[in-house]
């Protein structure tokens, strides 16, 4: 039976209208949610910030939550209480989530028990908040949709952010040849420390030529693409025969020549973690937890913000000059 939470109100971010970062309102009198059947209430210590949360907030994205709402899916913290029929977790357990019901930018969050996972002691809460969406997305892009095989080459286009670093670590551990791009010297160093064999600066006007020189005439087998509206046309030139571009991120339109796919029988494949089946999510979770256990999965935490600075976080994740790890809110 769910116990009453220690407190009845909490601080949380509420969005009452779609728009720019300024619509994120921090309120201190939000009711602490109560876990229903098969749900878990978590005392949140950290919550990841993902680019998709800025798209949803702006109202331009396919998924529009009912207003008002609290953003945030990747929380890490401690179980406060559990709803009926929950046997996998108990009060006091350290956990991280892949989704929340009530929203993660808050001091407490309710999540469905099947979207909650044990957080191993070797990772802190900040790292726990950097696992969910980035690692599950990277795994889905590489294996469930991209059919990556050991020995193939992968270019992680925009490798120094949350999904990019996750892709580098997973691909390297799975026996792929890993190339990554970043926009700063610091970003390039981070990706080389996290599994990339080679790093390229995508602000260098000749960087695609450097990638071609590295891959040779064969080209690259898989591209994990974080900014397809800028890079897709160039990506098609870099692919091998039967190569595939995995579209993980996009912020607008782009013109391409479909003939470029014919000459190589290449594919452009969209990736949406939201469409994963229960079985696919379970497969992702198993791979992620195994990676933590084995030691190669180490989330890199980048910029950290208190809840009060959430609008700055949303501004910076879209506008900053170059990522270096996963952005998190600290509670």
UniProtKB/TrEMBL annotation:
- Presence of keyword RNA-binding: yes
**Superkingdom per UniProt:** Eukaryota
User: What GO molecular function annotations does the UniProt record carry, in alphabetical order?
Assistant: mRNA 3'-UTR binding; NADPH binding; quinone reductase (NADPH) activity; zinc ion binding
Query: Which UniProt key words apply to this protein?
Result: Acetylation, Cytoplasm, NADP, RNA-binding
Q: How does it assemble?
A: Homotetramer.
Family statement drawn from the similarity comment of this UniProt entry: Belongs to the zinc-containing alcohol dehydrogenase family. Quinone oxidoreductase subfamily.
Could you tell me what this protein is called? Answer: QOR oxidoreductase
Organism phylogeny: Eukaryota, Metazoa, Chordata, Craniata, Vertebrata
């Amino acid at each position: 039976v769910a116990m009453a939470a220690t407190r009845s109100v909490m601080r949380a971010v509420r969005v009452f209208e779609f728009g720019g970062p300024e619509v994120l309102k921090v309120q201190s009198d939000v009711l602490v949610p109560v876990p229903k059947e098969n749900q878990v209430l978590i005392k949140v210590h950290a919550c990841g910030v993902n680019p998709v949360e800025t798209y949803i907030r702006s109202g331009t994205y396919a998924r529009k939550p009912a207003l008002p709402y609290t953003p945030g899916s990747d929380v890490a913290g401690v179980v406060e209480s559990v709803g009926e029929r929950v046997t996998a977790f108990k009060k006091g357990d350290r956990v991280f989530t892949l989704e929340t019901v009530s929203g993660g930018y808050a001091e407490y969050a309710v999540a469905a028990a099947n979207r909650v996972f044990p957080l191993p002691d070797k990772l802190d809460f900040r790292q726990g908040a950097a696992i969910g969406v980035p690692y599950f997305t990277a795994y889905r892009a590489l294996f469930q949709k991209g059919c990556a095989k050991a020995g193939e080459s992968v270019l992680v286009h925009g490798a120094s952010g949350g999904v990019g670093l996750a892709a580098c670590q997973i691909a390297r551990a799975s026996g792929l040849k890993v190339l990554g791009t970043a926009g700063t010297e610091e970003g390039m160093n981070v990706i080389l420390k996290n599994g990339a064999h080679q790093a390229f600066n995508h602000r260098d006007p000749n960087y695609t030529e450097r990638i071609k020189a590295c891959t040779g005439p064969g080209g690259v087998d898989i591209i994990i693409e974080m900014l397809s509206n800028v890079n897709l046309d160039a990506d098609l030139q870099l692919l091998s025969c039967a190569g595939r571009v995995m579209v993980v991120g996009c912020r607008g339109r782009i013109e391409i020549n479909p003939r470029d796919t014919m000459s190589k029988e290449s594919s452009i494949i969209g990736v949406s973690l939201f469409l994963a089946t229960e079985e696919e999510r379970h497969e992702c979770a198993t791979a992620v937890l195994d990676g933590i256990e084995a030691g190669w999965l180490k989330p890199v935490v980048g910029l950290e913000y208190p809840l009060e600075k959430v609008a700055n976080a949303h501004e910076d994740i879209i506008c900053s000059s170059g990522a270096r790890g996963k952005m998190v809110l600290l509670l």
